Amino acid sequence: MKSSSHAPLHNRNVENRPIPSEYFSGNNCKKHNDENRKQCEASSASHSNADLITNHLNETTAASKTANGTPQHQWTINDFEVGAPLGRGRFGHVYCVREKKSKYIVALKAIIKDQISTPRLAKQLISEISIQSRLKHPNILRLYGFFHDDQRIFLLLEYAPGGELYRRMQKEKILRESEAAGYVYQLCNALSYLHSKQIIHRDIKPENILIGIYGILKLADFGWSAERTETNKRTTLCGTLDYLAPEMLNGSGYDEKIDLWCL
């Protein structure tokens, strides 16, 4: 098992700390663990694009070791009890997992390497990991670390037990004014921090906003995020059609203000 170097989960800022084990959805834990391992064994890596990602992860791991002086803990799938699935994405599944040693709960995103079918998708995933791993803000979903084996890449993410804001909006139909104002305020805080780091999210929508413990909003899914350049505007057409800003559609170039349009 190849893996990254990251500090133990309990050594984290309070705002983004993994939640205690009482939130763990551990029913049929062995069943989901077995299914996850079977999927890992069944997948076959697409070598050219998988190697691009693997090389980047290995280089990141080596740099982390050098910067810290001493090797940190190397995560493997055996460090976790795998619980209920939380969702499914383009390239794999997300599970609720509990670290065996600390008993902390996190979300484990398992990405199948052979689903990364093009160099563009490989670079997009590398960018997502690189950007989200640098972001530390109470209203941004934390990426604690990553590890990988021959078939899959695993991302350790902050667990948001409240689920998607989209689901809450569907359930409530109309949010209370005070609740909606609180959500907008928190999202503004997240975007202010993000833009101060020269990062554009490019896919702000209720499905990519999660509700954490105590109702704290968490901006998530940095698959389309990109770094803002000082000289040139971005021109890539991306994101979700219903939320695209006019300047992205007209091809004139755009900057971080497109995130404000989505808000």
From TrEMBL:
Gene3D superfamilies linked to this entry: Phosphorylase Kinase, domain 1 (3.30.200.20), Transferase(Phosphotransferase) domain 1 (1.10.510.10)
The EC number(s) this enzyme carries: 2.7.11.1
GO molecular function annotations of the record: ATP binding; protein serine/threonine kinase activity
Broad class of enzyme this protein falls into: transferase
Domain of life of the source: Eukaryota
Annotated region (Disordered), positions in chain: 1-47
Active-site residues from the entry: D203
Crosslink site: Glycyl lysine isopeptide (Lys-Gly) (interchain with G-Cter in SUMO2): K205
Coiled-coil annotated residue ranges, if any: none
Domain Protein kinase: 80-263
Cross-referenced InterPro entries: Aur-like (IPR030616), Kinase-like_dom_sf (IPR011009), Prot_kinase_dom (IPR000719), Protein_kinase_ATP_BS (IPR017441), Ser/Thr_kinase_AS (IPR008271)
Compositionally skewed regions (Basic and acidic residues) per UniProt: 31-40
Alphabetical UniProt keywords: ATP-binding, Kinase, Nucleotide-binding, Serine/threonine-protein kinase, Transferase
Catalytically driven reaction(s): L-seryl-[protein] + ATP = O-phospho-L-seryl-[protein] + ADP + H(+); L-threonyl-[protein] + ATP = O-phospho-L-threonyl-[protein] + ADP + H(+)
List of residues binding ATP: R90, K109, K113, E158, Y159, A160, E207, N208, D221
PANTHER family for this protein: SERINE/THREONINE-PROTEIN KINASE IAL-RELATED (PTHR24350)
Similarity comment: Belongs to the protein kinase superfamily. Ser/Thr protein kinase family. Aurora subfamily.
Name of the protein in question: Aurora kinase
Organism: Rotaria magnacalcarata
